[in-house]
Amino acid sequence: MAVVTLGAHTLDVLAGPVRNVPEGPDPVVVDEIRVTAAGAAAGTAVALARLGNDVVSVGAIGDDDLGDLLVAIMTRNGVDVRGLVRRTATQTAASILPVRPDGDRPALHAPGANLTLTAGAVGPGLLGAATVVHLGGPDVTTGLNDPAFFTMLAAARESGTVVTMDPLSPRPDLLGDAAAFLPHVDHVLLSEGQAAAMTGEDDPEKAAGALLARGPATVIVTRGGDDSVVATRRDTRRLPAPPVKVVDTTGCGAAYCAGFITGLAHGRDVLESARWGSATSATVAQGLGSDACLTDLDSVLRLLG
């Protein structure tokens, strides 16, 4: 088993480009509407599978049509979904995203079953059998903020499993809760805004340093199409993003995580793995949705020259 993605599973419905939303009943014609597996666990799982990794995804979804569609999408992409638990009392998490011409978008979001995920959903020995465990959105899957789950992570790390983490929400209160996970992970990847919200530091390098002091060996702060700050206990580096025409920023963080994890799985060091992450993110930014334009690892690496 190579990678376990654990956390937020969301079904995204995207439309674009959307230049304006009229107040009345008039229709808006767009070029494209897509449905994708998204969220910091499901979106990362699909990207990892497309990059050639064996992936098991663990999370909570509803026993509904949205959940059926999410399972079908992930299965078609080669993700092992036997770790998904179905809830009858709540819906599958879902978002509606009208994507603007510059790639930005608001979101209409129903958190659904993600809020019900607990450590009980994790099969015995699953984490310790993985090369990498990716915590996708522990700030929104608050049931994992549990000493029993931290004990499971500690046992997995002692057996050699690498743990990565990617928070999902921009909300300071939820990101504050995610700080509890920092002593239990090896590599943290997050956006500039999330880093500032978690630390109170607007400078991404200072924010990365503050997060490093709380336990992880690596902190990567992404800055959209500009660059990434890659901070370890040895040094801090700026990594420029490949220049591409941005269509949609949805899923770029999850794609970065998938590329980074793939680099680690191929024996690359942290900085080179971050370059793979940046190239994967740039690939996805060129189309609509969290899996756009992502076909295989070779095509991603060609962006790096």
From TrEMBL:
Keywords, alphabetical: Kinase, Transferase
Keyword flag Nucleotide-binding: no
Superkingdom of origin: Bacteria
Any one GO MF annotation of this record: kinase activity
Transferase in keyword set: yes
Pfam families: PfkB (PF00294)
Coiled coil: none
Residues annotated as domain Carbohydrate kinase PfkB: 21-294
Gene3D superfamilies in the record: 3.40.1190.20
Name under which the protein is recorded: PfkB family carbohydrate kinase
